[in-house]
Design a protein that fits this description.
Elements (H helix, E strand, L loop, with lengths): L1 H21 L16 E6 L5 H11 L2 E9 L2 E8 L3 E9 L4 E8 L5 H18 L8
Antiparallel strand pairs: 1-5, 2-3, 3-4, 4-5
Amino acid sequence: MRTQSYRFPVLFVALFAGLLAGCSVGPDRDIVPTNDPSVLGPVPGDRDDVERALLIGLETAQAALLRGAWDGDTYGASFLAIESRQGDVSATDHGNGTLTLRAFIEPDGDRDAQQALLQAWARRLEQLHGVEWAPR
C-alpha cells in the first residue's frame, strides 16, 4: 500500500515533464518561445522569403493575404480568414538572419489559429533560410 502513495506524485511529475517537453514552440530548438502566443522569435529566415513563407502560414490559418509591404525593417500584412475574420501579421528583420514574427486574428486573438499560423510561417522560413531557389 505504501508504494501506491508515491505513485501519484511520481506519475504527476512525469506527466508534467512530458507536457513541458511537448510544448516546444517553433520548428527548431533554436526558436525561443515567448509568453505571448502572438509572437514567435527569433526565427532563422531571409528577408526575401518572408511573404512567400507567410502564404504557407496563411493556408494553415485558412486565410488569404490582402496586402503586405516592407517598411524599413518591418514587414506588415493584413489578411482575411474564414468567417470574415481579419488579421494582421508582421515580421521584424534583425539583420543577422533572424526574424521575429507576430500574428493577431480577430476577435480578441484566436490563440490556436495564431500559433498555427506562426508555426507554419516559421517552419517554412527555416526551410528556405540560406536557399537560393526553392519551389513554393
